Amino acid sequence: MYISVEKHKDNLLIQFKGELDHHSSEIVRQKIDQQYLDQRIRNIILDLRGLTFMDSSGIGLIMGRYKNCLEKKGKLSIVNDNPQVDKMLKMSGLLKIINVYPTIESAIENI
Amino acid sequence: MEKNYMKLEFLSKSSNESFARVVVAAFASQLDPTLEELSDIKTAVSEAVTNAIIHGYEYGEGIIILEAKIIDDEIEILVEDKGMGIADIEKAMEPFYTSKPNLERSGMGFTVMETFMDSLEVESKKGEGTKVRMRKKFKSLSSKE
Lengths: 111, 145
Ligand SMILES: Nc1ncnc2c1ncn2[C@@H]1O[C@H](COP(=O)(O)OP(=O)(O)OP(=O)(O)O)[C@@H](O)[C@H]1O
Ligand SMILES: [Mg+2]
Fold this sequence. Notes:
The structure holds two protein chains of two kinds.
Chain A: E1 2-8, E2 11-20, H1 22-36, E3 43-47, E4 51-54, H2 56-71, E5 76-79, H3 83-92, E6 99-101, H4 104-109
Parallel strand pairs in A: 2-3, 2-4, 3-5, 5-6
Antiparallel strand pairs in A: 1-2
Helix pairs in contact in A: 1-2
Chain B: E1 3-11, H1 16-28, H2 35-56, E2 63-71, E3 74-81, H3 89-92, H4 109-116, E4 119-125, E5 129-137, H5 139-142
Antiparallel strand pairs in B: 1-2, 2-3, 3-5, 4-5
Helix pairs in contact in B: 1-2, 2-4
Magnesium ion is lined by residues 47, 50-51, 109 of chain B.
């Protein structure tokens, strides 16, 4: 699992590459939360297009970051085009509370 | 009737989650599954193995047994641990139930296994361990006949 973390104004952009499971989610969680401590950052954008696998550990990770965003009065958005990941997102009910966009640009526009 | 069988034992380390997925996917590939079928069984295996690691062997490492059987166009997968077991299986299998909300678990593991596979059976005894048996028929083979 490889992730890149970038800051754009008050947005934290995280791009994933590889497999998101229980093993990899621990490290990813630490990396995201550490950057989110930054006072200027409010919103999180998770770009899941590079994922080749995601199970319920990924859902737990997204839910946890969503709660952190609520506390900071920010917004969490997802960028995705992967049908396997979409199947998990649908099952989890997360799509009722989190918006999914096809590109990073459209996600930023809609924050 | 086409028959095949495999068995594997490994330590309950989180780095073995992807190992278990890859093994089952490679074994199942002889059934010529679609990408979606393959990703469904990988996800179900990942859920069962992760449960054995974080719940079954919560208090220390142990051995996880992974078995797969092919009978014609169906695969049967067994994931077994000799860990702490489940006291109330019915409750454990409820969607969104988790005994570990503080670990950011979503309580969806069993629901994923149920939805992505054709059948799911859970056998467990407190203090003795848990057996999860799942079956799935591959449509890709039957449709070719
Ligand atoms: N192998 C096991 N040994 C002991 N307890 C288990 C085992 N598998 C599941 N459980 C119990 O069943 C509950 C529900 O499991 P399930 O996989 O549905 O959710 P979870 O693991 O808590 O969360 P998630 O899978 O979404 O990360 C667990 O919280 C745990 O208490
Ligand atoms: Mg689970």
